[in-house]
Design brief:
alpha+beta; Pectate Lyase C-like; 2 domains; two-stranded antiparallel sheet; 26% helix; disordered N terminus
Length: 199
């Protein structure tokens, strides 16, 4: 209800500005400036509606990337932009991205689609990867110390030689993940093996 009200308010403001009427000699005056401003507001409103964020979906009981209209999806993002703006990766579509040895320390990648991405040797210390899709990703030799991998999907991921000390794997899907040579706390190792990770 709040979303509908908010959107309605914005659209109402756009209407007032775009068709704002000033009387001159009894006729309506069309203002180019008003139209320009209304287009800017409309663009901002549309952008806000189309941005995907990680939300808890009560129906599915899962964290899902949704926009304000309730649609599921991911945000398109340029890899170079991400490397310069590490807090801009929430629900980013980075499937198949080449991120070998990328410096992504404390990056905000919650809900990001990193399936089949190449993250060999990447620095992901303290990164927020909760709810991220990392199926089939190459994370070998990566540094995932203190990373938040809560409910991340790591099925089939290559974690050989990765450092997972103090990483949070609560609720992570690990079936088929390769952990040979990976270093992690005893509890995480036990958890990984119990969830189908293999050497």
């Amino acid at each position: 209800m709040e979303r509908k009200s908010s959107v309605g308010g914005v659209l109402g403001l756009i209407t007032v500005i775009a068709f704002g009427i000033g009387l001159s000699n009894g006729a309506s005056v069309f203002s180019a400036d008003a139209v320009s401003i209304s287009k800017s507001i409309a663009t901002q409103a549309q952008t806000k509606l189309s941005v995907y964020r990680l939300h808890y979906n009560a129906k599915s009981k899962l964290n899902i990337c949704e926009n304000m209209a309730g649609k599921h999806g991911y945000n398109e993002i340029n890899v170079m932009y991400l490397l310069d703006h590490r807090l801009a990766g929430e629900c980013a579509d980075l499937s198949g991205a080449h991120l070998r040895f990328a410096k992504l320390r404390v990056a905000y990648l919650s809900g990001a689609n990193l399936s089949h991405a190449d993250l060999l040797g990447a620095d992901l210390r303290g990164a927020q990867l909760n709810g991220a899709d990392l199926r089939g990703a190459n994370l070998s030799e990566s540094d995932l110390r203190l990373a938040n991998l809560v409910e991340a999907d790591l099925r089939g991921a290559d974690l050989r030689g990765a450092d997972l000390h103090s990483a949070n794997l609560r609720g992570a899907k690990l079936r088929g993940a390769i952990i040979r040579g990976a270093t992690m706390d005893a509890d995480n190792l036990q958890l990984a093996k119990s969830r189908g990770a293999r050497d």
